[in-house]
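Reopening: serine-type D-Ala-D-Ala carboxypeptidase still failing for me.
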Amino acid sequence: MRQKRHAITLMVVVFVFSALFLTILGRFLYIQATGEVYNVDLEEYAENMRETETTLPAERGLIYDRSGMVLADNQPVYNMYAILDEVYTGESETPLHVVDVERTARQLATVIDMSEEDLRSHLQDAVDNDRFQIAFGSAGRGLSEDTYQEIQELDLSGIYFNETKDRYYPNGLYASHVIGYTAFDGEDGSKQVTGMYGVERQLNDQLSGQDGYVNYQQDAFGDPLRNQEEVVQAPDDGDHVHLTIDQKIQSFLEDAMTTVENEYDPERIMAGVMDPDTGEVLAMSNRPTFNPNSRENIENWYNDMISTPFEPGSTMKIFTVAAAMEAGVYNGQSTYESGEFKISEHGRSINDHDVDGWGTISFNEGVLRSSNVAMAELVWNYLEPDRFLEYLKAFHFDRKTGIDLNGERIGEISYGGPWEQITTGYGQGSTFTPMQIMKAATTLANGGEMVKPYVVSHLTDSETGETYQKSEREVVGQPISADTVDELKDLLGRVVTDEEGTANSFQLDGFTSLGKTGTASIPDPETGLYMRGGGNYVFSYIGLAPKDDPELMMYVAVKQPDVEYRYQGSETTTYIYNTVMENSLHYLDVSPDRNDTNSTSTQSLPDVTGQQVNEAVSQLEEQGMSVQVVGAGDTINAMWPASGSDVVSGQRVLLQTNGELTMPDLTGWTLRDVLALARLNDLDLDYMGTGLVQQQSIKPNATFDKGQTLVVELTQSDDDETEEDVEDTE
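Support: Ran it again with your exact input. Result attached.
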């Protein structure tokens, strides 16, 4: 009986195990035949497990100035990591992982910004926790080419790098509020840079491009399998942005602003240079500023030229007078009583900066003296406030300029009552940005037409080089007529030249100009009253030159410079304006139209190219020219100025010969003459300071080659400066 039970049990066991075996075998056969498990394709699953994809980052487009100089570039940077697992070495004859933690920490500490103790702890913790690989945080991210090479020379096993691109700004802080900056969009530093500010942000989509990829299969160690087909999608690099900014003019501006910043320690400086005919912004800067390469201790996140409205002061008088002229109610010879203005007998007083006034004077003299009372008379008794408001809107003071930069803000036309209406006429109460004022002032260069400002010239395809999305001159209104412009330009020219004018110190050497000063009171945020004393004003100036056909317009404002007396504040704006405008006009080869000498006669320069040197020099010297020969040859190859140019007696003429090039003694030369020498001989010119040349890097009579770099140092003359009258425009 017992044997029978054992036999039955054995049969059951055999049956169960046979059934299980057949079930499993059937399952294996089914999987082998179909290649699926729970509707999952095993072959596809295996391929997905082996398959990996590596991003091929697109190279960010470059940003250029108007001449093709790079303002924002890309440079390789390296992110360091360490592999710690000895499995990675495998059968390699040399170790591929970190073998010696102590030595690795000690050597790396001499190169990267991380202590030996921290490095050793970081590496050892990873080993103790069986980590396959680790990174080194910020200390190992974004390493330069030099640092990368230095670490490579240490020959440390297990140390590897990922190469990526970082943004680099060759000119540092120059135009940083315009160009902006980028940042990595991933903490590990491995992802594409993204525009965070300025043009970099405004045109991020065009600059970024589209990443590509490589798709391949790998083994368990992450190494590519042999004899496989890779799928490669090449990246589409970002397009290039070309700005209207001129790097040379921007340099003039930055250097002048830095000089004033260091000497006067103002709270703010804002300035811009524009081609008033087209609206192209050639230079723009603010203080405080920042270096986009480091972005450390940024004090000012705003591009004040477009983002910081303030009460501008007497520069607004340009548009008050323009409105009165256009409306036909301005008679420059009519008189009024200066000093004080009241709407009613018991009303508040509006005073001139000279509270006693200048007696009964003409409106023309009132403009020259920057009289607040003259503006009050024009707004209240001649134009009337409602009509004046129409002109303010016609000049677009009620809206943004539309400049192609992000972050533009506007202030407010404060027009609630008679007091605000009148004070707006001389630049107090209402608030505007410098760019709004510059846009309105383009009417003075265009017969009354107002043009839209812009900083992006065009975009080019990075692959084909073809231009697209090109900016053009855009007329956005005509608030005044050409006749009004002519009358106003003559009057504003006298503000610069006449003895009564407040802008005497803004006269340019060699060029006629027109302009208007401003000395605006600043509201105290605690008391609501205007500040008084010393430098507690915004000192500003807007000017155009040459007067008859303006090539450049510049606005500059300096807030609260460290000066003891109010009249000293205008020294800051005078220095910046005169330095930048004179150098820029010479750089652009604008012919001087102002001659302070007794002789103003000009003559046409003859063509002496092809002549013998002695013959050419004699001919030009007989005509009163100052001749400088460049080179040791016997025949004239080229000359500057070009033949046919109108020149004055004593003007320097450069003659280039066919022989070996020799450097003249440049001592006492103007920047304009040095620029001409550089262009004539294809020299790469760099310079420091303003005034006349005192030092030169290529010694006199030394030979030089085309394309060589010439550095000159210029120094101002010791002429005494004259003080100017300034106005308190409260």
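The radius of gyration is 36 Å. If you still see a failure, please send the error message rather than a screenshot.
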